[in-house]
TrEMBL record:
Record PROSITE patterns: RADICAL_SAM
Region (Disordered): 341-371
Cofactor or coenzyme needed: [4Fe-4S] cluster
Root EC class: oxidoreductase
Gene source species: Streptomyces sirii
Name of the coding gene: pqqE
InterPro entries with a match to the protein in the record: 4Fe4S-binding_SPASM_dom (IPR023885), Aldolase_TIM (IPR013785), Elp3/MiaA/NifB-like_rSAM (IPR006638), PQQ_synth_PqqE_bac (IPR011843), PqqE-like (IPR017200), Radical_SAM_PqqE_MftC-like (IPR050377), rSAM (IPR007197), rSAM_sf (IPR058240)
Protein name per UniProt: PqqA peptide cyclase
Function: Catalyzes the cross-linking of a glutamate residue and a tyrosine residue in the PqqA protein as part of the biosynthesis of pyrroloquinoline quinone (PQQ).
Pathway: Cofactor biosynthesis; pyrroloquinoline quinone biosynthesis
Note describing how the cofactor binds: Binds 1 [4Fe-4S] cluster. The cluster is coordinated with 3 cysteines and an exchangeable S-adenosyl-L-methionine.
CDD domains cross-referenced by the UniProt entry: Radical_SAM, SPASM_PqqE
Length: 371
C-alpha cells in the first residue's frame, strides 16, 4: 500500500484579479463555468479526510472569488481538515473573514509582490498593495495566524530586507520567501524573471542575517532556487507520496503542474473515489517510488532523498518526464539550466520588461491589459 497523503491543495478556481507573470497556473486556465460545485468540493474534502488528509490549502487563482468559500471551509472543518486560505487579499472584508472564521478557517497566507506599493502593483499587474495591507490587518484583528508569501525573482530579490520589515510591520508570524519555480506562466516568462547569481548570493546573506536577528519574532522561510546550485529538489516530497492537488474542474494530480504532462490521463473526482485515485490510479502510481527511474538516478545514492527531482520540470525541459531533472548536475541535460543561468540577459531598463500574463479567461495579453 502507498503511504497516506496528509495534505491537499484545493485549487478552487483559476479566476484571479491579479496578473502575476510568475503564476504557476497552467497556460490553459480552467473556465469558471467548468469548476466543481460546492457539494462536489465538500464531497472531495470528506473523501480526502477518509484517506488521511489533515491539512488543506484553499488556493487558486483567488479563492475569494468563490462565493461559497465559507461552505467549503465548513465542509473541510467538519471532516476534521485544518484549512489555510491562500489569497491575494483583494476582496477580503471584515464581514467575509468573520464568516470564514466562523466556518472554521484556521490561518491565512497572503501573497505580497514587493515592499514598495508601486512596484508591488506593477508586478501584480493591477493596483492591489493597499488591499493587501488592509487584509493583513483584518487577519490580525481576527486573531488568525498570518503568513506572507513572496515569490522571488529578479524584480524583487533586492528588496528582501524591506520585505522582511514589511512582514514585521504587518504583524506576520511567518514570511515565506519562495524563489520562482518555473512552471506554467513562470516558465513562459522565465527569461524576464530569472535573477543573477549575485542577486541570489546577496539575498541568501540577508536571509541568514535576518533569521538570526528575528528568532522568536518572525519565522523566515527560504525556498531555494533549483536552477542555480546543481541540485534537484525533492519535488512534492515524491510523486504521490505526501500530497495531492485537486484542480478547479476536479482533475486530481500529484502536483499542481502535472497537467502539463500530456499523456498522464489524470483522473477526476467526478468519476472516481479519491481512495482509488490515490491508491490505484495509473497517474499516481506512475512515478511513485524509484522503480520508474533510469540512470543516472536509478544508480544514484540520492534517489530516495530527492526522487530524481521534478517530473514536470524534466518534461518541460527535455520532453521526457522520466528523465533526470535537468536541475541536477548529473543530468545529461544539465546544460539546459546551467547555460540559461550563466547567459541570463541583462535586466531591462523598466525593471519589469513586458512579460505575458494570465487573465481570468485564460487568454494571453501583454502587461497592462484590462481585465
Ligand atoms: Fe537526484 Fe537523480 Fe541527480 Fe541522483 S542523479 S542527485 S537521484 S536527480
Ligand atoms: Fe510536478 Fe514537480 S511540479 S513533479
Amino acid at each position: 500500500m502507498p503511504p497516506r497523503p496528509w495534505a491537499l491543495l484545493a485549487e478552487l478556481t483559476h479566476g484571479c484579479p491579479l496578473h502575476c507573470a510568475y503564476c504557476s497556473n497552467p497556460l490553459e486556465l480552467v473556465e469558471r463555468k467548468a469548476e466543481l460545485t460546492t457539494e462536489q468540493w465538500a464531497d472531495a474534502l470528506r473523501q480526502a479526510a477518509d484517506i488521511g488528509v489533515v491539512s488543506a490549502h484553499l488556493s487558486g487563482g483567488e479563492p475569494l472569488l468563490r462565493s461559497d468559500l465559507d461552505a467549503i471551509v465548513a465542509a473541510a472543518d467538519g471532516a476534521g481538515i485544518h484549512t489555510q486560505l491562500i489569497t491575494s487579499g483583494v476582496g477580503l472584508t471584515r464581514a467575509r473573514l468573520g464568516r470564514l472564521v466562523e466556518a472554521g478557517l484556521r490561518s491565512v497566507q497572503l501573497s505580497v509582490q514587493h515592499a514598495e506599493p508601486s512596484a508591488s502593483d506593477l508586478i501584480a499587474g493591477r493596483r492591489s498593495f493597499a488591499a493587501k495591507e488592509r487584509a493583513a490587518a483584518l487577519v490580525r484583528d481576527a486573531g488568525l495566524p498570518l503568513g506572507l508569501n513572496v515569490v522571488l525573482h529578479r524584480h524583487n530579490l533586492d528588496a528582501l530586507d524591506a520585505l522582511i520589515d514589511l512582514g514585521l510591520a504587518w504583524g506576520a508570524d511567518r514570511i515565506e520567501l519562495a524563489n520562482t519555480q518555473f512552471y506554467g506562466w513562470a516558465l513562459h516568462n522565465r527569461t524576464e524573471l530569472l535573477p543573477s547569481r549575485e542577486q541570489l548570493d546577496r539575498a541568501q546573506r540577508t536571509v541568514r542575517l535576518r533569521r538570526t536577528e528575528l528568532t522568536g519574532t518572525l519565522e523566515v522561510i527560504w525556498v531555494v532556487p533549483d536552477y542555480f546550485d546543481g541540485k534537484a529538489k525533492p519535488c512534492m516530497g515524491g510523486w504521490g507520496a505526501l500530497s495531492l492537488t485537486v484542480a478547479p474542474d476536479g482533475t486530481v494530480l500529484p502536483c499542481p503542474a502535472a497537467a502539463s504532462i500530456p499523456d498522464l490521463g489524470a483522473p477526476n473526482v467526478r468519476d472516481h473515489r479519491l481512495e482509488w485515485i490515490w491508491d490505484r490510479s495509473p497517474t499516481f502510481r506512475r512515478y511513485r517510488g524509484t522503480e520508474w527511474m533510469r540512470d543516472p538516478c536509478r544508480s544514484c545514492d540520492l534517489r530516495e532523498k530527492d526522487f530524481g527531482g521534478c517530473r514536470c520540470q524534466a518534461f518541460a525541459l527535455t520532453g521526457d518526464a522520466t528523465a533526470t531533472d535537468p536541475a541536477c548536475r548529473l543530468s545529461p541535460h544539465h546544460s539546459l539550466v546551467r547555460d540559461l543561468v550563466d547567459t541570463r540577459p541583462e535586466q531591462t531598463a523598466t525593471g519589469l520588461g513586458r512579460p505575458r500574463r494570465p487573465t481570468r479567461r485564460g487568454t494571453i495579453t501583454q502587461e497592462g491589459a484590462a481585465e
